[in-house]
Amino acid sequence: MITSGRGKYKVWLQRQKIGVDMVFFLGGGERSHIGGVVIAEPEKKVRAIRLAGHYDDIVLQPIAKAACKKYKTKVITVGGVHVDNATKEEIDLLVKNCKKLVKKI
Questions:
Q1: Domain 2-103 is in which class?
Q2: Under a CB-based contact definition with an 8 Å cutoff, are residues 64 and 39 in contact?
Q3: Is 77 within 8 Å of 26 (Cβ atoms)?
Q4: By the 8 A CB rule, do 16 and 23 touch?
């Protein structure tokens, strides 16, 4: 498991191998949840599913793309990060912390 940030802005990413393929679970903030799913396959367009009322696919897509490119295999990312009544600044910080996870894959 890798992490980025602190306190209620801490996010985490856990990897599970399934044969040569991978699933990455993203969570953090005050309450982890499933807000989206992203599927990346080598040489194919990335597909994203956004659950109603969520925008987690925005931070899941770069993770899926980076892992797919690095490991040259199918990758699914799933999860979500939540902070109650988050301000724009807090959302920006959570997104920044998620981007730092991409660099650690």
A1: alpha beta
A2: yes
A3: yes
A4: yes
